[in-house]
């Protein structure tokens, strides 16, 4: 078989620990034998970030703006322990945070469904994709403890010095207060990313806030989404046969639990934080969640939703066998390859990505899986494979599919 050719390179962002090991195995077993991979490689492993004063992370994000599509391995976000472990010059910032700030994107997370790993919610038949707004609200709030009686006000001082005031509360005793903010530009970017991703994946888009109670704050989110939808996306949604649906957050929660899935649920920052953990645990496993950062300009960065699986890496370093699930990382590759194929109009590349995903699913459904899945599967005849043999089993399934 001739290898599939690529036109434009992918931005490849390598990472850390166990996922870095899987990264190499995935390329060797599942990509190189079938695709003439064109990638611009950036090593976001912590050592290289430290050596380059984190310049490599910035460069990789700018390259994503240049080429449009990136695939990223999980990376360590340093804390005090990592500074010591890697003898770092500084406690470098989270690469995901840096990349997100440069691309101004929204993260979409969706579970990978296979037979034998059933969601806890029986009605869910299709994935539910969570889109979380990643700026402001309670995450950038100012707070005060109010020691006793007194008045709290919000004060806005315009550049010309004029003040506008709004009473928060006349305290008669001790209490607490919090000031939140958001900015229209960020909400607009969020809305554009959501509408674009819905069109891209041909799924309905749900959005919910508490606008009946928060008549200015949450209502602004609702209004911005509606204005952008009406002005720029309505016609395209109708043509694609998909729907934009707004409701109250509590109503949304009730509907989600009774739904079949198969849509994107856009959430404000806090709702997204809480609901993405609910969705991922109810669907089964963080190792079966895909994650893609979509910028309002339409740049895409694909990754796994889990971290670098540090505990497994230390076992690996001691020469012990690991059974680490590579599916989410493989799906990061297939997501990026498919998107590259769509943008470059190379359907062979898209078809290859589809088959590689199907190969992962077939492998698990045939009872061959890693330990994390073996612990939660309802399948009876299960073979637990180590990290390497699991990828080799996927290769066998892929070769069978490519023969058809
Ligand atoms: P983690 O890497 O997600 O792993 C936590 C635990 O979840 C593992 O110990 C393992 O459980 C299980 N797990 C996660 N992925 C798995 C997989 N693919 N296959 C099998 N089991 C899996 O989280 P962490 O250990 O808290 O974080 C490690 C590092 O990752 C940190 O330095 C953090 O900064 C980084 N991180 C990076 C990203 C990112 O780049 N997107 C995201 C989150 C965290 P058992 O040990 O029980 O087997
Ligand atoms: Mg959280």
Order of strands across the main sheet = 2-1-3-14-13-4-5-12-10-11
The averaged pLDDT comes out at 95
Distance between the ends: 12 Å
What overall geometry do the principal axes of the alpha carbons give?
A: globular
- Work out the number of β strands: 16
**C-alpha-based Rg, rounded:** 23 Å
Q: Major β-sheet, in short? A: 10 strands, mixed
Features:
alpha/beta; binds magnesium ion; two-stranded antiparallel ribbon; 404 residues; binds NADP nicotinamide-adenine-dinucleotide phosphate; ten-stranded mixed β-sheet; globular; 14 helices
Question: What does this molecule look like?
Answer:
- The chain is of the alpha/beta class.
- Helices cover 45% and strands 21% of the residues.
- The protein has 14 helices and 16 strands.
- It has helices at residues 17-31, 46-51, 55-67, 80-85, 95-103, 184-201, 217-240, 249-258, 269-283, 310-317, 327-344, 347-365, 371-374, 387-403, and strands spanning 10-14, 39-43, 69-72, 106-111, 128-132, 142-146, 150-157, 163-171, 175-179, 204-209, 244-248, 263-267, 289-294, 300-304, 368-369, 383-384.
- The strands form 4 sheets. The protein has a 10-stranded mixed β-sheet, sandwiched between helices. A two-stranded antiparallel ribbon has the order 6-9.
- Helix 7 (217-240) links the parallel strand 10 and strand 11.
- Helix 1 runs parallel beside helix 14 (387-403) and helix 6 packs parallel to helix 7 (217-240).
- It is globular, with a radius of gyration of 23 Å.
- 41% of the residues are buried.
- The chain binds NADP nicotinamide-adenine-dinucleotide phosphate (NAP) and magnesium ion.
- Magnesium ion binds at residues 273, 277.
